[in-house]
Amino acid sequence: MIIQCTIFFTKDGSRRFTPLSQVINRHHVQSKAYRLLKPRDVVEAVLDHEVRDWEVVVEPSLASICHADLRYFTGQRQAEVLQRKLPMALIHEGIGTIAESRVPELKSGQRVVVVPNMQGFLLDGTDSDHCCPACKNEHGSNYCNRGKFLGSGTDGIAQKRLVVPAANAVPIPDEVPDEIAVLTELASVSYQALIHVKEQLKTARVAVFGDGPVGYLAAAVLHHVYGVSQDRLTVFGAIPEKLEQFQFATRHLVQEYDFAGGERFPIALECTGGKFSESALNQAIDILEPCGHLILMGVSEERVPINTRDVLEKGLTLRGSSRSSIRDFYPVLEAMKDPACQETLARLLPPERTEIRSADDFAQAMELAASHRTWHKVLLDFKW
């Protein structure tokens, strides 16, 4: 028998279940949305959402553009993928306020981070035991094969009224300002990627490849959440101006470093993706110790050749990670309460936010982000 219930995650990641009434109350809300019809074609649409007792309505206020959004917007995804997923409202990194809630833990007007990865059991209002094998794994629910991901197959945050399971709206601590909280989702992906080597991080040296936002947040999570000190954290990058931002880590330019004769590491993260992922992956393989761990976080649309001979000879473990789940947001938000962490993350923030009042504003912001790959994230300030 499947029991309907509301599911919440506490700060330690444990689940708490609250039974629903025998009769599920349902009603509908309408939402203005900025939907991508085809690459570079954004229109305003009206969506109709059903709201059930275990769901909340969130009004997005501030969002951040991810490279994944840009791949849809510019048409870099495969044609069959675009045909299957569009039309769709983009954006999965964002925060908002509760516009409607029937659960006591979330109040109207409360600030929340939106968790875009909605597992199947949350969508159903059941528990993880009635979902899929991944959800029954303590650290595997981010790979749920029955779930939905905002801005990737289902309408994302670029809409006025977003309906999500209550568990997917994580309260923002009072000490964390909006512009820091909006970085939670991307930081939580790094936290999830590293949780499998959590014990080693207490003493291990770690190498991060990539001087963009993904690499920066991965390094920041290593330093501020997992406690990896500057002398144990090394970042490899290609652009001096970007690499200079990593002031909490040891830094090396890849074009100047001796990967054959340099330091060896037990753990390395590849955070470059795209056309540079081949060199980053193979350089990481070069510097890893026998039985080391290589964590892949950079996304590439094409297949990437790697040095499998050394992977075999060294007995390396390769693990991919691109999404997080609800339990990963809490330790990240807790770390964000620290002013030192906020100071580190603020380096990623742009001088000003981009106001979004129309579909044209949204399309122009996406064009700007696609054409100017600056160090800073692009923040969308929704004015509904």
Automatic annotation (TrEMBL):
GO terms for molecular function: metal ion binding; oxidoreductase activity. Belongs to the zinc-containing alcohol dehydrogenase family. Its cofactor is Zn(2+). The keyword NADP does not apply. Residues 55-174 form the Alcohol dehydrogenase-like N-terminal domain. This is Alcohol dehydrogenase catalytic domain-containing protein. PANTHER family: D-GULOSIDE 3-DEHYDROGENASE, NAD-DEPENDENT ALCOHOL DEHYDROGENASE. Residues 258-337 form the Alcohol dehydrogenase-like C-terminal domain. The keyword Oxidoreductase applies.
